[in-house]
Amino acid sequence: MSIEAVSTPDRDLLRPLRYLWRVPLLLLHVVLGILLCGLILTWNRGAVMKNGREPFTHRMIRAWSTGLMRIFGLRSVRVGQPLQDAVLFVANHTSWIDIELLHSQRAACFVAKAEIAGWPLVGWLAASGGTIFHRRGSNHSLAAVMQVMVERLRAGRSVAVFPEGGTGHDGVLKVFHARIFQAALDAEVPVQPVALRFVRDGKRQIDAGFRHHENFLQNFLRMLGGPAMDAEVHFLEPVPVNPDGRRRMAELARERIATALEGRAA
Predict the structure, then answer these.
(1) Which residues contact 198 (CB under 8 A, 6 or more apart)?
(2) Within a 10 A sphere around the Cβ of 228, how many other Cβ atoms?
(3) What is the rounded CA–CA span in Å between residue 139 and residue 237?
(4) Distance, CA of 180 to CA of 49 (rounded, Å)
(5) So what's the pLDDT on residue 40?
(6) pLDDT in tens, 106-120
(7) What's the pLDDT tens digit per position in 43-91?
(8) Which of 197, 159, 164 is nearest to 79 (CA)?
(9) What count of Cα atoms within 13 Å lies in the side-chain half-sphere of residue 175?
């Protein structure tokens, strides 16, 4: 596969036609999501994977997220295998769609910025899925988030985080914050890097996520009307646990994700 990275052209004559059928499908899918959260998740919200056996609620989350991706013209493609049971997943971050992309392959609790809770549809979905909201720049908030992460991991729930601390642009992978890896050490669970990569015609699309100065609504509408592409979820080799080297764990996770994003073997 080519590792060439390109941007999506702004001029797209078929965009209005895609809105004609994608918007009604999205509204129907949201209604199904309300029923899913109101009935199934409420009934068995605390279910966890044990010995590799995926609970029914997790399968429903994956199916709904896969359907949402398809409405946006994204075909979710798994590369590699996620670890079983409780895992700390660390992934690169491009936009709000990352949560649904990973959920299409493996249900997990996400750590996300507090602002997402107020976003239309996405905020409600995130809260319903057990997202742990963090207020950036607040040490008190981070300490509370770390405590919740450890509690959920020890209870058998997987947690997914974006160690960059924010979305990247134009394919740039930022430095990973090491402190977040402490939760895996405290809960004694493995850390698995995950590379989220968007591809069309064999070429990586570097602006599938947020563009510079693009807000949530602008990104949401652009992606909803955009041409089809593959959304790859690369589950990579776990990072060796190193109680004395959180920084090395963060660097190694970043290295493996960067390699996968470039289209080389991780």
Answers:
(1) 74, 94, 204, 205, 208, 209, 229, 230, 231, 232
(2) 11
(3) 31
(4) 23
(5) 62
(6) 988 888 777 777 776
(7) 666 677 887 888 888 888 899 899 999 999 999 999 999 999 999 999 9
(8) 197
(9) 5
Residue whose structure tokens are 């609504």? 217
Count of residues making up the chain: 266
pLDDT digits (tens, 9 = 90+) for 169-212: 777 888 998 989 999 999 999 999 999 999 998 899 888 888 88
Alpha-carbon distances, residue 67 vs 4, 26, 80, 185, 198 (angstroms): 28, 9, 21, 35, 17
- Residue listed under structure tokens 């807000």: 215
Least confident of 63-67, 152-156, 168-172, 236-240: 168-172
Q: Measured in Å, how far apart are the chain's first and last C-alpha atoms? A: 14
Q: Where are the beta strands (DSSP E) in the chain?
A: 5-6, 74-79, 88-91, 109-113, 132-134, 159-161, 191-200, 203-205, 229-235
* Average confidence score pLDDT of the chain: 85
Query: Rounded to an integer, what distance in angstroms lies between the CA atom of residue 60 and that of residue 75?
Result: 17
Q: Give SS3 for 220.
A: helix
For 118-163, the three-class secondary structure string (H helix, E strand, C coil) is HCCCHHHHHHHCCCEEECCCCHHHHHHHHHHHHHHHHCCCCEEECC
Two structure tokens written together for 42: 């409420």
**Alpha-carbon span 239 to 234, nearest angstrom:** 14
What does the alpha-carbon distance between residue 78 and residue 86 come to, in Å, rounded to a whole number?
19
